[in-house]
Amino acid sequence: MNTDKVDEKAVRELIENWARSVRERNMDGILASHARDIVMFDVPPPRVSRGIEAYRETWSLFYTSQAEPIAFDIQELDVVAGAKVAFAVALMQCAVKGRMGEREPLDFRLTVGLRKEDERWIVVHEHHSIPAT
Amino acid sequence: MNTDKVDEKAVRELIENWARSVRERNMDGILASHARDIVMFDVPPPRVSRGIEAYRETWSLFYTSQAEPIAFDIQELDVVAGAKVAFAVALMQCAVKGRMGEREPLDFRLTVGLRKEDERWIVVHEHHSIPAT
Predict the structure, then answer these.
(1) Which residues of A touch B85 (CB under 8 A)?
(2) What are the chain B neighbours of A81 within 8 Å (beta carbons)?
(3) pTM
(4) What domains does chain B contain, in order, with CATH numbers?
C-alpha cells in the first residue's frame, strides 16, 4: 500500500468513526479530530459557523431535529488524500422528526476538508447541505 | 515563497479565473480546469451531478435563474494546498431574478476539491449550497 493509500485509509476511518460518534451522541468523539478554527457550512442556518465552540453548537441543534435512534449513515464515501491535505465527498442520510413525530429519512451531501498536523489528520472544514427547493 | 504557497496561489488563481468565466458566460473557461469525472453538489436539485456533461448542464440551469449582469462574486476564499491535493472554502454571492424580474442578491457557500495531475491543478469536486430554511 503506497503512502496515498495509507492516508486515504486513515481519512476514511476518521470519517467512519466520526459518523459513529454522531449516531452515539458522543460529543467527545465528534470533536476528537477537529481543528479549533474549523469552518462549518451546515444544513440549517447560519450560513457559516467558525471555531470549535460554534461547531459544537451545530450538533446540539442537529439533535433537536432528529428522530431516535439517530441515523447518520454514509451511503457513499470518496476520499482524495495527499501527504498533507485531503478531502472527502459523501452521500449521507439522517432521519428527522416529522410534524406528527414520525421518522422521515433525509438525504444530504457532505464534503470534508482535512490537513495533517503532527502526523495526525485534522478536520478543518465541513460542508453539509441539501438541495434548495 | 515555499511550495505550499506556490500551490495555494495557483489554486486561488484557478478559482478566481473560473468565477470570472462564470460571470462572462464563458463555458470553455468554466470547464477549462475540470475533471471528466467531476462530482458536483449544486444549489438546486439534483442531489448529485456526475461527470463533465452533467456539470455543464448545471450551468445552463444556473443562467436561467440569474439576473443580468451575472454576479458570481467571491466574498471570502481560503485555500488549503498540499503538493498533490487541495481544497478551497468560499463565501460567494450571485443574483437571482425575483418574481417581478427584480435583482435579488443570493449568498451561498462553496467548497472546491482539487488534485494535481501532470503538474496541473484540476477540479474534481464542487459543493455549492445555501442553508435550508
Answers:
(1) 80-82, 85-87
(2) 85
(3) 0.97
(4) 3-129 (3.10.450.50)
Which pLDDT belongs to residue A4?
81
Spell out which chain A residues touch chain B, with contact meaning CB-CB distance below 8 angstroms. 4, 39, 41-48, 78, 80-87, 89, 91, 107, 109, 111, 113, 115, 124-125, 127, 129-133
Q: Is B44 helix (H, G, I), strand (E, B) or coil?
A: coil
Element spanning A104, H or E: strand A103-117
CB-based contact A80 B41, cutoff 8 Å: no
Residue type, A113: G
> Which residues in chain A are closer than 8 Å to B65, comparing Cβ atoms?
none
pLDDT in tens, B38-65: 999 999 999 999 999 999 999 999 999 9
Q: Is the dihedral of CA B68, B133, B56, B114 positive or negative?
A: positive
Contacts of residue A110, Cβ cutoff 8 Å, sequence gap at least 6:
A88, A89, A90, A91, A92, A126, A127, A128
pLDDT-based confidence at A3, cuts 50/70/90?
Answer: low
